[in-house]
């Protein structure tokens, strides 16, 4: 519930003090994010990770940070340096008295942009924040990026169906009545499915216009015939 929707409720002095304390923790965390990213950028650019072979190897051993997280933080640090126009030392000393992205999600929206475009996008985001009271979020940054670059994120589309096939091997144990195999063979012939008998096994070659249809066929055959085992060999899918 927002402040506007909750005008009747007021916080006690004790609650206000607790809120202030919590807000300070959040702000410190935001500043810590900035300093962490910039510090990793410095370690990388100045080769301070020696004797480790790379920044990712160093961070993995020292901070238990995986390669992806290390890369994201380093990219964020480079972005913060670009947008602020300050040196790494100035940012680490807390001399940035300007709005800057305060989380990884916001920084990630700039990844595919050149430095000049990053600055232009951020200038527009800050303008919208100041003049239109828009909250700075990853979504707002994405909207500005799309407007300024003329690109939109296309919705994910399913790949076109590709004809495929698989072999289903139905095995009958020695002690079973093998007459059941004849029933399966007759059904395969009726449905136009290639079927080969080899000792205790029947091998069906099932074809379909897509993987989805193929799975349905395999499930259908497996369900209808009460056999001991069914082995699907998808290595034959083309």
Most strands sheet: 4 strands, antiparallel
Structural Rg: 31 Å
Helix content range: 40-55%
What is the overall shape? elongated
Q: State the separation between the terminal residues, measured CA to CA.
A: 55 Å
Pattern of helices and strands = HHHHHHHEHEEHE
Low-confidence regions: none
What is the percentage of strand-forming residues? Answer: 5-15%
User: Order of strands across the widest beta sheet?
Assistant: 2-3-1-4
Secondary-structure-based class equals alpha+beta
Counting DSSP E segments of at least 2 residues, the number of strands comes to 4
Q: Would you tell me the overall average pLDDT? A: 81
> What is the number of helical segments per DSSP (H or I, 4+ residues)?
9
Give an overview of the whole structure.
With 238 residues, the chain is of the alpha+beta class. 53% of the residues lie in helices and 11% in strands. It contains 9 helices and 4 strands. It has a 4-stranded antiparallel sheet with strand order 2-3-1-4. Helix 1 (13-45) packs across helix 3. The mean pLDDT is 81.
Give a brief description.
It contains nine helices and four strands; from the N terminus they run αααααααβαββαβ.
């Amino acid at each position: 519930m927002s402040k506007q929707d909750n005008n009747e409720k007021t916080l006690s002095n004790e609650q206000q003090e607790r809120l202030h304390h919590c807000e300070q923790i959040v702000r410190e965390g935001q500043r810590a994010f900035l300093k962490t990213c910039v510090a990793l950028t410095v370690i990388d650019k100045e080769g301070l990770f020696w004797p480790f072979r790379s920044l990712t190897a160093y961070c993995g051993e020292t901070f238990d940070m995986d390669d992806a997280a290390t890369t994201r933080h380093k990219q964020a640090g480079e972005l913060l340096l670009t947008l602020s126009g300050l040196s790494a030392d100035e940012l680490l000393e807390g001399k940035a008295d300007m709005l800057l992205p305060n989380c990884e999600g916001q920084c990630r929206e700039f990844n595919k942009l050149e430095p000049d475009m990053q600055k232009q996008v951020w200038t527009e985001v800050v303008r919208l924040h100041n003049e239109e009271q828009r909250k700075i979020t990853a979504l707002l940054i994405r909207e500005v990026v799309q407007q300024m670059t003329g690109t939109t994120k296309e919705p994910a589309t399913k790949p076109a169906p590709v004809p495929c096939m698989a072999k289903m091997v139905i095995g009958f144990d020695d002690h079973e009545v093998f007459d059941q195999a004849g029933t399966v063979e007759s059904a395969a012939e009726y449905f136009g499915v290639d079927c080969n008998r080899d000792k205790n096994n029947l091998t069906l070659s099932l074809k379909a216009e897509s993987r989805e249809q193929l799975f349905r066929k395999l499930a259908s055959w497996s369900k209808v015939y009460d056999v001991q085992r069914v082995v699907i060999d998808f290595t034959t899918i083309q």
